[in-house]
Amino acid sequence: MAKLSVDKAFFKAKFHAKNGEIEEAKKVYQAVLQAFPRNKRAQQGLVALNKPKQSAATQGLPQDTAKKLLNLYNQGQLVAAAEQAQTLTVLYPESFVFWTILGAAQNGLGKFIEAAAAFKKVTELNPNSADGYYNMGNALKKQGKLEEAIEAYNKALAIKPDNADCYYNMGNALKDQGKLDEAIEAFNKAVAIKPDYVEAFRSMGNALSEQGKLEEAIGAFNKVLAIKPDNAEFYYNLGNLNHRVSAHNQVGRLYASALDLSPFDARYALAKLSRSLPIVLSKETNENPLKSFDDELESFCVWSKPTKAELDLRENFGSSLPFYLAYYPENMVERLTLYSDAVNFADLDRVVNSKRKDAKIKIGIITGHLSQHSVFNVLTKGILSNLDRLQFSVHAYITNENGENEQIKDSLDFDDFFSISSENQKRDMAEKILADELDVLWYPEVGMEPVTAWLSVQRLAPVQFASWGHPITTGFKNMDYFLSGELIEGVDSEKHYREKLIKLPGTGCVTEFGKWASKPGDWEKSYLHENELTFLIPQSPFKFHPHNDEIIVQIAKEIPEAKFLLPDSEKFPGSIELILGRLKDRFEQDDVPFNDRFVTFPWMKTDEFLSLMEKADIYLDLPTFSGYTTAWLGINCGIPIVTFEGEFMRQRLASGLLRKIGITDTIAQSLEDYVLIARRLASLRDEQLLWEEYRRKIKNAALMADNDFSVVRAFEKFVLQAVK
């Protein structure tokens, strides 16, 4: 090869290299070396091509430019930082420094797709960049791409296993996936690396709480407070958890500490008031919790007056509600009126006049229970399904959007349907209701969930009324009427309501038992024996008021062979143990054997619970609070129900149902009568043929409880008169 040819070859090799055609350039140098094995220029050219190409970060990266770009980002000028970084990644495409700043700026601007792409480029340029994978994981998590985010976090941890933040963020991604065990494991690794990691302990506590491991969750939050004792929110969270496990002696102190740190936070003040009532009254509980509530109510009324408190109350009313007042057998009108007036705001008493443009009357319904729940199955479904739609249009406002809502919505053919999935959207719902210019607005279950409560304190329609989804007066002055039933109200019952009481026919509801079938569950097969006399007490823990204890003791005393079946509670761990502890003391006081008298059963699916009621012998409806839905299911299973017809509607639900179907011989007018009825039924059970006939009689009579369309016609008449 002549010298001129060699020069041409070098020129050609450089041309290929400049254009990125590295392999072609190598071939040229190799051809030169075949002809001239000692040619230094060819050797040097080939060595240079075989060297790993250095990134711009090490190839004369303009340090001043990088510093200025970083300053822009640190000063919060994210748009400018993102624009300049984008330009610099074009000029220096292999500088992972510029790609990192670009990703961080895009992330700060909420452009998570672009941020993830930039961080991915960082990991391609530098596969050992733990920060690159970590940042990419964060951007993917914010897009909701949880599986990809977790994969990125794991790659980051493989490179840098001591990154506590990475374990923390991965734990949150796993928690969002519902993988709570794995999430808790990740949080534990985070705090092992960083023992004062407050956020990780808090997230761990929340995950444990979701699992129902409330005592462990309390332990996690106690560690949070040990590290950061000046955070009001942590005291509030810990107060909520202690309330759920019935650690009542701790609850008030924790909420008070939260208020000391943040004096005008309405959530803390509302919780301190509402949760002065324990979920379960144990033997250690104050003998008169209502006195504690009254003291707290007086303090709350004073607290609510300053402007700062009022402003926060407007936003956060409903976060905690005095739900448990309904489970004390006293008239609550005065208490709930004081409470209502403390949270009522003059500008929300807006005048809303009817602006009817159509021939139809516009009925709105606000509910958080458009689902297979007692409020829907008993109170709203029958009326909504049978309204005269030539006279009325129905507008539904659903406070907890889910898939079940959609299925039911289609079956009810609403004229308008508006739902929200978050409490943060409650103002949108209020604006929608006002814009719809309704004639009447129906609240079936005020007092059971936050958004409904927040809306119900306002005037959103010319006529507003509640019904007995939560069977107690609302106390709100903007609630005009309370719809109940003739058979579930006693003498002078109007004095139990701030609203004007309207008594619909019968029990005030339209039900249809339908095609629910029973199916024995595993618990029943293992623990329920035919030869045992069983009294079923299917009540939630907060309905076991101590006033009922004497009746249970007397029945146990007079019927020594009786066993009592009580439901356990996943929602309130430890509550049934507190109730049994209280009952044990009461049994021992009367020298009544306690051991082996009580059997607890777990939460059951509807078909399993129906089977349990078919097999159990006698249903005890507790005197202080009666249950309608469970009693309705019970009569359809033919189980005899012993009930006490008390003063308040919430003590008369089962008796009203039994009167409706003509089975009145198990309705007690006194507590002594209640025990006598239980003893009579236990004796009747010994006569097998008579017992079977009696149960068939109840089951056949249950048909009379359903499809009472006179309730619908009375409801329509009420609406027409109220609008006029």
UniProtKB/TrEMBL annotation:
Name the enzyme group at the top EC level: transferase
Question: Could you tell me which residue ranges the O-GlcNAc transferase C-terminal domain spans?
Answer: 353-508, 542-686
EC? 2.4.1.255
**Full protein name:** protein O-GlcNAc transferase
Pinpoint the residue ranges of every TPR repeat in the record: 96-129, 130-163, 164-197, 198-231
Question: What processes does the entry annotate via GO biological process terms?
Answer: protein O-linked glycosylation
Note the InterPro entries from the entry.
Answer: OGT/SEC/SPY_C (IPR029489), TPR-like_helical_dom_sf (IPR011990), TPR_rpt (IPR019734)
- Return the SMART domains for the record: TPR
- Pathway, according to UniProt? Protein modification; protein glycosylation
Keyword match Glycosyltransferase = yes
Checking Pfam families in the record gives: Glyco_transf_41, TPR_11, TPR_16
**SUPFAM superfamilies attached to this UniProt entry:** TPR-like (SSF48452)
GO MF annotation terms:
protein O-acetylglucosaminyltransferase activity
Q: Which keywords does UniProt give here?
A: Glycosyltransferase, Repeat, TPR repeat, Transferase
Q: Which family does it belong to?
A: Belongs to the glycosyltransferase 41 family. O-GlcNAc transferase subfamily.
